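#struct-help
A.M.: can someone run this one for me? Single chain, 192 residues.
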Amino acid sequence: MPHPAHSRCSATRRRVALMRDVIITVRGEHETRVAPEEAVARLTIRTEGGERTDVMGRATDAASMLRAALTARQDAGEIREWSTGRLAVRSERPWNSEGKPLPLVHHASLDVSATFADLDALSGWLGEIAELDTIQIDGVQWMLTDATRKAVEADVAAQAVRVAMTRATAYAAALGLAEVTAVEVADVGLLV
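D.P.: on it. Structure tokens below:
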């Protein structure tokens, strides 16, 4: 018959072996805020009226003025790139409250986008063009350069892993374990 001390010792060794295989699943998060480096301004030139040639002419004049201003700002280094779409013209026939047709109304529109590297220049430019009745500001998309975005993403990912390791180490210490080794690292939703 085995000595009782051997049984207890054997059981203790089994428990220690099981504790080394403890898997702790934690989530590490990190967030950082970075000031934008570029901005894409999107706007639309819009004209409308009863005479098709007048509507197209006013849209074309506004587009020429805008192209000249954008070219000058690009030459000054304020704008990295800009583009315009095609001039679109459509007509619609409105009806009065008695159901009778009214004269045609013609609409012209042209989409424009400009990527600004100088954000102060963008602010001033938007203030200027906002006063023009033919221009509608559709929005501004704030961005980072590709190099900065990649560097920030890498730093945030590394910080999130550090947070997860710190949390896992705290759990391990509470269990009396000393060493923590990462087994799996994944973005949210990728671990099953």
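A.M.: thanks! The longest strand covers residues 38-49.
D.P.: also worth noting: Helices lie at 4-20, 52-75, 119-129, 146-174.
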